[in-house]
Inverse folding.
């Protein structure tokens, strides 16, 4: 790992004895997960709990003519069958728009549809019963009379005058359009020696969290309080929205997350069936449990990345990239998702294309259109995979056009490492990135020249391997610029409260949340380091709106950078408070003391003076022995919000090395490399593992994953045998390296890393495939890269 | 995804099982390994009244060899086939094919009887039975029947079995000393259903195929013995002859079009498999040069 | 006649007598009747591996097994394998290598990995990947899991006389 590049003060608080910052330590409290003794919401049982199953539309678009629940209601064990009309008295509809996305429009969406269903899988009624099995039996007996309507299922036709408008009140099927014109694009293309234009097609896909979405909602009518147990990434957001739509005060709603079996953004959104579950709990005055089964998950978890993007690049013979231009079309569902909207992904694509490169000439149009398919919204890395695949695909095609090596063209066009701070043509402000250092490191790690030699030698034996490179930038640590400015009650700040307990152990409460990435660990590592306390004596509480400061939660790779900084600052204050008391007890000065190994020590020679355990005893039980006037405070809270940069950009580069069987179209992934610069690394192993997990999601997108809809809007592969997720047998080992450019905005200097792997992996694979296909003159710009697509490109079928 | 309600009976003898099947007809389903039945029931694609669990019937287990015949009880688990010395020696085609079936946990439960009765066109064992010229032994209250594997499979999930029938065993002639076999399939991920697969049993002598039974699976609604392969038997196969056979194979096949592959893709992959098979069996790398397909 | 039946079986060495509906699968029986929630449900069609348990020493999918079928059997879940210490070294390797993130696939992954390690003393990485190819993980991308299993295999070999 290269030494930190800037900001000499950034690590001052962290260069302490026995600091955990930068150390590989095991995450605390893994034993419960290793022993199967975690508590996931899908495990939860409460007294009198009932189960809800939703009667879901088999049609992509249909009028609900009538719902006959009489037979179903008579089934033993059925508690209630509730339609949209009945639920509307308990919960209000919502609209997924944000004011800063100018022109974004969407229709009101209800917890359970009334009068019309707009995608195959939308809930038309809810069955509540004593068990899931009985509820499913009853759901089969609910007779819904549908009148099918014409469905909008081809995004390319969504704006045709002949295509039905899904929501008449909106006038057309255009949810959002954004255009950008920077520099002098037409002149740039005129001045280019070569121009490449292709259409990139991306398969719609979905998160497939292993634990499906699960909610237990419990309305205690006597307390007038709603408990929501839900594996959400943003509990305060859920608290706000549940209260708003159920007519409650936020103080009447408590959201508790428990262990979460995977999220990746899937569980950061507001779902109609989950809102219906809250409403049913209030209506029926008992706990209601909803766990989506796998088929339901495919049909109702948000989908993502359904894009068709025309891309154009102009290049000079000397490798100078003159301009980028895109025209992106994405087909979402019939509603923009709430509250983060389904326009963010396309907006990000416009923001991010061309990001790593110096060219100032960039023009873009993105249109988001409604369809009668499942809803679509933010999923790990959001628009980055699209933007990166388009950008890096165009760069490689330009390189091929002028006969230049793909690494060389990047060397000539990536923003220089000493050019910062600077901004992209789309207005993104970069504080400090390291594209060249990262590329140099990557080339060394993968032994690029040797792989090229191997590729050449094997080609003579009719064995076809390819190398693909993908540079990328990554949005992390978002400020209110993402959602808050648009009116969403999504907090962009986070807080940590930290205290010394009566035995000298430390308790932290943090508003970031844990889904397995290591939020608990990074908090404990930071607090332990700053306080000089062993991590084993630091307990972290998170995922509970009653028990933590108010905050945004974990999403958009913000946990480490924002939650970590809040932990650092709170721990600093607590340390000062402890040293003030210690100085009083020891008749010394705070500057003469330090904390190390759970004890107050001399800052000069490290000699222990008094154990924290003893100090705590005195403070809590014998304050009579303290000097006059001292009011010890062994608890501190600090919040942190990024103020200078709207996003803390990170950068990285990835490479894929693969072999392609030209007889069968099958691809074997031989290796994958990532160099990532995410600033200060709190726990390098956790960062690397986030990157690896993210890469494999990108590899899944590149080769396997696609939600296959037919022309009637039916999702035809809604199960795990037909929707292909990456499994161990096909995935390569992934080598990860780092450059470190801390952000100067925070003392911790950490940026985010959770999504970087997913941002660039598919682009690297696609470039590697096209590299392998070079001798055949075939180019593929569609993912997933199935054997069928490869064989077609080769003309073999 | 909870199954609909049903009744459950654990058969205590073969007679007990077939009596229950006779009584319930198509309202009953046999529970053997359950690895295909249970997913279908959890998805509510099937909702039988009665499940007849034959798992306790020791008479349906066992792999025996004698008199030139190998007999495998219907309840023999895939993992048992994989570990069986007798299978490795006398039916290596099966041993190789089984390694492609799903995953260890599935193989610990799935049975040969279940696989054959379920008749998934993409399954490995049905094709192996046709390649081995196996006989499938069935019992009902009407008595015992013996059906040639080639006649057993009728369509997608369709066999000659009636709801009253219980598949009890499979038999085939043990492989002669000069026999050879070939097995391969193209699947997107380890253990997935094949896009196209080939199971072949052969006798090779002096660089020629004396006997050759190549059976494709996942190219239609049932395992398909390649008729076009007849032109490759008892000849010194030349690249031109192989090319012609592949062409004829393309015309012989009428593959389905689905999410996994188009018809032309299946045709193409089937040809690749046959070419690789012949090349490997005859130890003739020249026959597998790319471009012959 | 969809009447309940009585079953008697061993679960983690403990004798359990229960009355169950025929349609109750083993995963739901363990989770809901015995409150052993370490066996997870991810797909209910046998593909994801989250529900993997051991029956009479063999790994199986609990979602594809009826509780009724398990009468007379000896079932072991992740809780039992943990309490007996049988996989303590494997669990430690997972912890040290961070071969789990959300933990939902982990019980099934551990039981399947242990199944491999009891059959083969020196599985290489490809063999480990092959044996785990029926266990879905969305968080780790598998690399760390392979590392942890490989390291455990190596340590067990080193401990052998």
């Amino acid at each position: 790992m290269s030494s930190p590049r800037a900001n000499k003060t950034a690590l001052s608080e962290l260069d302490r004895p026995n600091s955990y910052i930068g150390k590989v330590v095991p995450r605390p409290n893994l034993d419960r997960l290793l022993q199967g003794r975690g508590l996931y919401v899908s495990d939860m049982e409460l007294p009198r709990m009932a189960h809800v199953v939703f009667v879901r539309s088999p049609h992509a678009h249909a009028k609900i003519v009538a719902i006959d629940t009489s037979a179903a209601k008579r089934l033993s064990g059925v508690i209630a069958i509730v339609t949209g009309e009945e639920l509307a008295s308990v919960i209000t509809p919502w609209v997924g728009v944000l004011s800063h996305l100018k022109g974004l429009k969407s229709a009101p969406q209800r917890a359970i549809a009334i009068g019309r269903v707009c995608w195959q899988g939308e809930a038309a009624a809810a069955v509540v019963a004593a068990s899931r099995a009985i509820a499913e039996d009853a759901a089969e007996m609910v007779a819904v009379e549908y009148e099918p309507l014409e469905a909008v299922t081809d995004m390319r036709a969504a704006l045709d005058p002949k295509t039905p408008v899904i929501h008449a009140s909106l006038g057309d099927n255009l949810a959002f359009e954004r255009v950008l014109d920077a520099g002098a694009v037409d002149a740039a293309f005129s001045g280019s020696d070569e121009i490449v234009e292709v259409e990139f097609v991306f398969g719609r896909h979905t998160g497939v969290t292993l634990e499906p979405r699960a909610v237990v909602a419990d309305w205690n009518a006597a307390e007038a309080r709603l408990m929501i147990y839900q594996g959400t990434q943003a509990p305060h957001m859920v608290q706000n929205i549940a209260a708003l739509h159920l007519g409650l005060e936020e103080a009447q709603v408590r959201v508790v997350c428990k262990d979460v079996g995977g999220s990746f953004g899937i569980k950061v959104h507001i779902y109609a069936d989950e809102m219906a579950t809250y409403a049913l709990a209030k209506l029926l005055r008992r706990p209601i449990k909803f766990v989506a089964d796998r088929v339901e998950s495919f049909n109702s978890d948000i989908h993502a990345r359904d894009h068709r993007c025309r891309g154009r690049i102009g290049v000079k013979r000397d490798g100078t990239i003159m301009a980028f231009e895109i025209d992106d079309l994405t087909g979402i569902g019939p509603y923009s998702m709430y509250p983060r909207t389904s326009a963010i992904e396309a907006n990000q694509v416009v923001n991010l294309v061309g990001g790593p490169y110096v060219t100032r000439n960039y023009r873009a149009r993105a249109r988001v259109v409604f369809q009668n398919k499942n809803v679509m919204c933010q999923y790990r890395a959001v628009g980055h995979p699209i933007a990166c695949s388009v950008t890096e695909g165009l760069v490689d095609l330009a390189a091929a056009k002028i006969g230049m090596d793909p690494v060389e063209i990047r060397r000539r066009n990536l923003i220089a490492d000493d050019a910062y701070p600077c901004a992209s043509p789309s207005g993104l402000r970069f504080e400090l990135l390291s594209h060249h250092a990262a590329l140099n490191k990557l080339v060394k790690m993968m032994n690029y020249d040797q792989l090229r030699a191997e590729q050449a030698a094997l080609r003579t034996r009719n064995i076809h391997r390819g190398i693909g490179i993908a540079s990328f930038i990554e949005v992390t640590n978002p400020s209110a610029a993402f959602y808050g400015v648009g009116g969403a009650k999504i907090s962009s700040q986070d807080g940590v409260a930290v205290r010394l307990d009566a035995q000298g152990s430390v308790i932290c409460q943090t508003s970031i949340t844990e889904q397995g990435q290591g939020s608990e660990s990074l908090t404990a590592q930071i607090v332990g380091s700053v306080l000089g306390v062993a991590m084993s004596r630091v307990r972290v509480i998170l995922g509970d709106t009653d028990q933590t400061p108010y905050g945004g939660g974990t999403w958009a790779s913000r946990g480490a950078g924002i939650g970590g900084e809040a932990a650092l600052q709170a721990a600093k204050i607590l340390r000062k408070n402890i040293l003030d008391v210690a100085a009083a007890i020891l008749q010394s000065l705070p500057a003469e003391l330090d904390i190390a190994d759970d004890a107050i020590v001399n800052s000069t020679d490290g000699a222990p003076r008094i154990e924290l355990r003893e100090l705590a005893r005195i403070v809590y039980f014998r304050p009579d022995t303290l000097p006059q006037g001292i009011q010890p405070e062994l608890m501190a809270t600090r919040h942190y919000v990024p103020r200078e940069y709207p996003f803390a950009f990170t950068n990285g580069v990835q490479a894929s090395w693969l072999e392609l069987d030209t007889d069968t179209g099958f691809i074997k992934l031989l290796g994958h490399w990532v160099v990532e610069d995410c600033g200060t690394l709190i726990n390098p192993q956790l960062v690397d593992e986030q990157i690896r997990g993210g890469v494999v999601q990108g590899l899944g997108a590149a080769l396997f994953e696609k939600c296959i809809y037919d022309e009637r809007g039916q999702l035809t592969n809604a199960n795990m045998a037909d929707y292909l997720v990456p499994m161990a047998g096909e995935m390569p080992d992934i080598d990860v390296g780092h450059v470190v450019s801390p952000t100067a905005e925070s003392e911790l200097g950490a940026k985010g890393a959770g999504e970087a792997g997913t941002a660039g992996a598919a682009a690297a694979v696609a470039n590697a495939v096209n590299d392998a296909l070079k001798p055949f003159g075939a180019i593929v710009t569609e993912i997933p890269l199935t054997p069928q697509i490869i064989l077609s490109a080769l003309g073999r079928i | 995804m909870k199954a609909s309600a049903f009744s459950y009976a654990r058969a205590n003898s073969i007679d007990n099982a077939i009596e229950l099947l006779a009584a319930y007809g198509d309202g009953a389903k046999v529970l053997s390994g359950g690895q295909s039945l249970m997913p279908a029931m959890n998805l509510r694609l099937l909702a039988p009244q009665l499940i007849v669990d034959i798992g306790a019937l020791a008479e349906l287990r066992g792999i025996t060899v004698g008199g030139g015949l190998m007999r495998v009880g219907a309840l023999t688990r895939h993992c048992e086939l994989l570990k069986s010395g007798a299978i490795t020696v006398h039916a290596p085609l099966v041993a190789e094919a089984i390694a492609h079936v799903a995953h260890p946990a599935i193989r610990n439960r799935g049975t040969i009887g279940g696989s054959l009765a379920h008749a998934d066109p993409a399954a490995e064992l049905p094709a192996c039975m046709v390649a081995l010229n196996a006989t499938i032994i069935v019992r009902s209250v009407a008595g015992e029947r013996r059906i040639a594997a080639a006649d057993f499979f009728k369509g997608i999930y369709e066999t000659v079995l009636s709801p009253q029938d219980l598949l009890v065993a499979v038999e085939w002639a043990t492989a002669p000393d000069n026999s050879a076999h070939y097995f391969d399939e193209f699947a997107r991920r380890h253990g997935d259903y094949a896009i196209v697969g080939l199971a072949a049993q052969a006798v090779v002598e002096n660089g020629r195929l004396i006997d050759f039974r190549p059976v494709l699976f996942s190219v239609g609604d049932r395992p398909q013995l390649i008729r076009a392969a007849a032109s490759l038997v008892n000849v010194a196969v030349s690249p031109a002859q192989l090319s012609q056979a592949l062409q004829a194979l393309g015309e012989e096949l009428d593959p389905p079009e689905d999410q996994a592959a188009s018809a032309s893709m299946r045709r193409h992959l089937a040809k690749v498999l046959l070419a690789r098979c012949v090349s490997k069996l005859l130890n003739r790398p020249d026959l597998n040069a790319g471009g012959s397909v | 006649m969809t009447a309940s039946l009585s079953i008697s079986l061993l679960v983690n060495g403990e004798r359990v007598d229960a009355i169950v509906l025929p349609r109750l699968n083993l995963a739901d029986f363990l989770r809901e009747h015995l409150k052993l929630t370490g066996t997870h449900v991810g797909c209910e069609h046998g593909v994801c591996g989250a529900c993997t348990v051991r029956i009479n020493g063999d790994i199986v999918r609990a979602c594809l097994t009826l509780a009724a079928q398990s009468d007379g059997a000896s079932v072991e879940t992740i809780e039992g394998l943990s309490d007996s210490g049988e996989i303590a070294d494997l669990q430690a390797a997972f912890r040290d290598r961070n071969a789990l993130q959300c933990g939902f696939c982990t019980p099934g992954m551990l039981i399947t990995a242990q199944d491999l390690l009891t059959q083969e003393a020196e599985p290489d990485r490809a063999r480990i990947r092959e044996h785990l190819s029926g266990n879905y993980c969305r968080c780790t991308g598998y690399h760390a899991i392979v590392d942890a299993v490989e390291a455990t295999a190596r340590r067990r070999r080193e401990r052998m006389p």
In short: The CA atoms of residues 139 and 166 of chain B lie 5 Å apart. The longest strand of chain B covers residues 196-205. DSSP finds eleven helices and 14 strands in chain B. The mean pLDDT of chain B is 96.
